[in-house]
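## retry 2 of 3
previous attempt timed out at serialization; input unchanged, resubmitting
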Amino acid sequence: MDGVPRVPEQRHPGSPAEPEQSAALRFGVLGPVRAWRGEEPLATGSPQQRALLAALLLREGRTATAAELIDALWGEEPPSQALAAVRTYASRLRKILDPGVLVSESGGYAVRLPGEGALDLGTAQDLAAEAEKARGAGDLCHARDVLRRALALWDGEVLAGVPGPYAEGQRVRLEEWRLQLLETCLDMDLEQGCHAEAVSELTALTAAHPLRERLRELLMLALYRSGRQAEALAVYADTRRLLADELGVDPRPGLQELQQRILRADPGLAEPSAPVAETATAPVRPAQLPATVPDFTGRAAFVRELSDVLASASGHGPSGRVMAVSALAGIGGVGKTTLAVHVAHRARAAFPDGQLYVDLQGAGARPAEPETVLGSFLRALGTADSAVPDSLEERAALYRSVLDGRRVLVLLDNARDAAQVRPLLPGTDGCAALVTARVRMVDLAGAHLVDLDVMSPEEALALFTRIVGEERVASEREAALDVVGACGFLPLAIRIAASRLAARRTWTVSVLAAKLADERRRLDELQAGDLAVKATFELGYGQLDPPQARAFRLLGLADGPDISLAAAAAVLDLPTEDTEDLLESLVDTSLLESAAPGRYRFHDLVRLYARACAERDEHPPGERGAALSRLLDFYLATAAGVYAIERPGDRLVDGLEPTEYPGLSFTEGSAALDWLYTEAAPLLACVRQASASSRLRRAVDLLWAAKDLTESGADSHQYEATARGMCEATRTAGDTLAEGRARTVLTDVLLVTGRIPQAEEESRLAMRLAESVQDGPAVSWVANSLGLICLHQGRHTDSKPFFERAIDGFRALNNRPPEATALCNLSRAHLGAGDVAQAVDFARRGLDAHAEFGRTVRLANSHYALGIALNRADRHTEALGHFSEALTIFTAHRQRLWEGTTNYRIAEVHLAAQRPAQAAQHAEQALALGCIGGDRMEGNVLTLLGRALSGLEQTDRAKACWSKALRLYEQEGAEEAREARALLRPASAA
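## retry succeeded, writing output
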């Protein structure tokens, strides 16, 4: 649909009357007919009186005759006293409203609106016009926001409760306009890549308006772009059958064409549904290339060679347009990145749709994961967070689809191997990729391979001269050749050495040459590129003053992609201000990078060198371990504080290992969660780094205190890998207490992801270990987990003793919040055993206990448990209230997986109450967010969604949901597979 729909036959209000008196008077017709003076609601009288007011308001200042008003209120059969009634209603309204608002003229009446914003319908029109203007200018984000504001003005049924034929006609007219606005807004959602959110809303809308083909078309497109092709085709089949049964017609041509394009997997469907004007700013054109160095020198043959390859992608080469890949290989510091960035900048004009860049960290211990990089690339290309799929395969497919038809250059820097690179390559002609790596990628099919060697002596001297200056080099040419020779002609080494010399005006080139000669005469003999780089770093390190050198050495000890200023202060055992001064001075020397305000990182080679310096120079040697111990203390103390804010009253933190170095303090939950999620990667790296040290117990406790990283779904994969590593480390160390806690943590991870057999195995081992050392907190938590495992397995009676043991254990520890949690879980056990009354009672007791500590995550869990029990008791309204409260709290605490799970439970309530449209909408939201319980829970959501769709007579789409659920159940070996098969049998027979 072009532009934003305008309300039929609707004009803006005329000029206001008596603004001083009526400035605060407002009216509403996009819902019940209402009036306010400021924030005070006014009594608008009987239904017929409201009908008169509505008829006048919707004429927008024009006069309505008495005959027109009588016809509007009563139609063809007015009462005998109709004219008198109209006059009475007008007189009563005049007393309510400000003077001069309701006026009599020409034998009729008119309402003079007192200014802009006085009528909600007028406001909606203004917002729709603003959205149309923004969309025409290509600002889709603003257009969507404005249009959503316009739609939010509707408050239920238009003119609700107002009688008469005029009101009925206006209801139809304004509802049609609302739907047109909604379709336009959803169309822009899809153009912006918000497919997952749109599916949920469109599912509900198609259920409410089953014959509206445009909504069906948008739903098909949203499902297809979400990777749900079978459901998209099922929507078409349901639509065709419905139109044939109800109207005896086929779907309109646009819908038929969309079905055929989906069947062909038309790449064009991955693009916005409507073309964007050339002047529009909606398409995102990333420009991520790092700045090229101004003193780039030499490499002329390589520049020509690589430029020719890129030209073949742009269509300027002899072969026409192709998808070009060039892979540069060479030792570290040879200048691969500098050359690639230089060539990429030269070719920018040939790739007008953007340039992407990523450092793949291939030389480090933990290279960048392709799925993480793809997520970053998709967002840079304009894909919304919620539309980015989870798996590597889906992200790679969407990435290729988004790039189709675009001309984009991708620079993949510092790659580990071809396997890391393959998913990141564009899939169509017109695009190109430049790859740098330390290895030759002979197994990267179709790549143009370039082996980059060190500079020639002439190029090396030219680079040195450009940095240092012609005057200083001209008189000491031989010394300059000695310098570049000592650097192994390696560009990175030359650049660092020359930069240091340029910054020290009192030095001569001979002084620098003597320093290099004294320290690394063995470079040519070793023929190791890293040693050449190390020699150059040694030169820079030698110029640091003692505090800078100590900071450089100790910061290099910490694992993780970067480090915050506060964490660095812990490593150095210095005040934050002094630490910042030191780190910024290291940034100035290029030995440290500032990743973002307050965050710092080493280049991977510099980090290795810094660690070598620490091993060689740090005295006493125990200071290295002490620095890492302070870092671990900092993370543990801060994470414990976050845990205490998120779970007030929970005494888990009292049983953690003590810390000597303090952490950060937070006054409110949002800042605390910001810290936890921002620090996730460095924090987990710190845990892993402590796995082979005396810091083992504190590392395990840090993992336990940071459990929100897995329960929220934010960093589940890294958290699980770390938990498994700690289980093995503690077992090897023979630390029974630490191993018991590590396996307690791993049990939680497995429960969240729905891997019940593995969770049972780990929990039983954790229980034996915890019992053997009388670790009360771990015993209680594992007992609770064992009860949950029984619930998942349908062994409700068996679960009760575990929950009762957990309750007794937490009570003995005087730990009320987890005791309340176990009570809520015991409620689930009674519910499964058929004792609904007991289930409600235990859930209420848990809720009352949690309520003492405020609106916490665990209070939300209690509302969730009580909602389940009330739903089973057929008290659907009460259940919905508790689920809604749980959802609000989970959202505020960023518990995405619990948000999804609660939406699933809300869908259950709606389905039980025979409201399939609402059930389908919430089930879609659960799928978009994800749920506690992994693939098995996803199968449950799909099964419920299928039932809701079946209730809406969308049987083909329902069958597609059940088929996918069956596949998930079979993969998990879940007994629910029988139910899915049973649902599919009648569907197949039909």
